[in-house]
Amino acid sequence: MLDNVATAGDIGRLMLEIGARAKAAARPLAIAGTTQKNDALNSMTDAIIAGTGAILAANALDLKNAAEAGLAASFIDRLTLDAGRISAMAQGIREIAALKDPVGEVIAAWDRPNGLHIERVRTPLGVIGVIYESRPNVTADAGALCLKSGNAVILRGGSDSAHSSRAIHACLVEGLLAAGLPGDAIQLVPVTDRAAVGAMLGGLGGTIDVIVPRGGKSLVARVQAEARVPVFAHLEGLCHVYVDKSADLRMAIDIVVNSKMRRTGICGAAETLLIDRAAVDTHLKPILRALDQAGCEIHASSAVLDIAPGFKPATDEDWRTEYLDAIIAVAIVDGISGAIEHIGKYSSNHTEAIVAENPEAVARFFNEVDSAILLHNASTQFADGGEFGMGAEIGIATGKMHARGPVGVEQLTSFKYRVHGTGQVRP
Questions:
Q1: Domain count for the chain
Q2: 202 & 69 share domain
């Protein structure tokens, strides 16, 4: 490994070489058949299962370093691997193998009056750069998704997960080679210097077609500000749960607690709870009690404190904060109109949920809230490609161009037009 490249110039040359190798690998990968890609994916799965011990040993080094650095518990949770998580990682790759191959799919077809037959067909994007932080499982998810969609990928994981990512990456390359595909189709940047990120954002001499950042707000903000190639990203997950007056109380409690507390460090964790003013007498205190008993710190608006005193007063900054921790901001709103107004003002357009039995409220929520993922009577923690049946995801995109929501195999393709004629010439 080249962990200590001497100069920025050395890193630049290294990264250009990585880009050139990825570009070369993308050509045979784009035309690889479904069977060959699936063989590689299944071989990767076998290699990960067989390499569980080595992956755990590598992860132990990362966890030791994280503990010595005093990193937050939520960060360490994202970094931690165990036998169950490694098995789930392998299963995720197997599920990707079972997905329909998007490459070559005819999305639309039509005939023109002049006899031309036109088809719109899915094609790979080319070379994808993925920049991520503490989650070592992203190495497997991103590598597998890019392979299934016919793309080469350059992975740049965080320094905190470097040992884990290298161990996982070795299994991915083993799977590629076993299926006769180029090992350079999935490359892991071998240096932790941040200059490597800057090189990727510059496009590596035109070899990177898309950048996908997956990490904290500072990382994503830097990528969005500096990238010279298209970006699929979300800046933060300011996710809301709105409890309507028509909501079933037991359901509302279960959904709110799960949305916040199942895993507090993921982007789909709820950060703000909105309660319909008409539901205050019946729903507010039981939901707050359940959150409190689950160990959640509550930052309450003045209206909430008037009814349920004793919690920390919320400030305007609370409505703009992605806690990624066992903290939630709570406000009372004037029905569905108030919820839509609050979400429109503060949301990052990631994921929002409504708990309601009133179909008119649900219809308004779905029609008027402009976020990538909207849920009715379900936890925000379902904002996940695996839960959408995509096998896994490379990230969540909140932009409005090309990919939006979970970025799976279909979202990692573009398209081209195939036009069939019978000798037509244009007059």
A1: 2
A2: yes
Its domain, for residue 103, covers 8-233
Domain contains 391: no
Q: Do both 36 and 149 map to the same domain?
A: yes
Q: Which of 66, 406, 354 is nearest to 237 (CA)?
A: 406
225-270 pLDDT per residue, tens: 999 999 998 888 999 999 999 999 999 999 999 999 999 988 999 9
The amino acid at 122: R
Domain end (from 198, 233, 268) = 233
Sheet strand arrangement including 152-156: 186-188, 152-156, 127-132, 210-214
In a domain, 28, yes or no: yes
**Same domain (yes/no): 245, 196:** no
Give the sheet arrangement for strand 117-124, strand by strand.
Answer: 106-111, 117-124, 413-420
In sequence order, what are the residues at sequence separation of 6 or more whose Cβ sits closer than 8 angstroms to the Cβ of residue 158?
A: 132, 133, 134, 192, 215
State whether 273 and 224 are in the same domain. Answer: no
Query: Taking the C-alpha atoms of 26, 31, 37 and 40 in order, what is their torsion angle to the nearest 10 degrees?
Result: -50
| 149: nearest Cα among 181, 120, 126 | 126
- Tens of pLDDT, residue by residue over 99-154, are 999 999 999 999 999 999 999 999 999 999 999 987 899 999 999 999 999 999 99
For residue 110, what are the contacts with CB-CB under 8 A and spacing of at least 6? Answer: 117, 118
Give the contacts of 166 (CB within 8 A, at least 6 positions apart): 1, 58, 188
* Residues 164, 90 share a domain: yes
372-408: pLDDT as tens digits: 999 999 999 999 988 988 767 888 898 887 888 999 8
Token pair 């329909």 is found at 100
91 & 193 share domain: yes
Task: Tell me the C-alpha distance between 342 and 340, whole Å.
Answer: 6
Q: What is residue 385's predicted lDDT score, i.e. its pLDDT? A: 84
What whole-number distance in Å separates Cα of residue 26 and Cα of residue 128?
10
Q: From CA 348, how far away is CA 369, in angstroms rounded?
A: 11
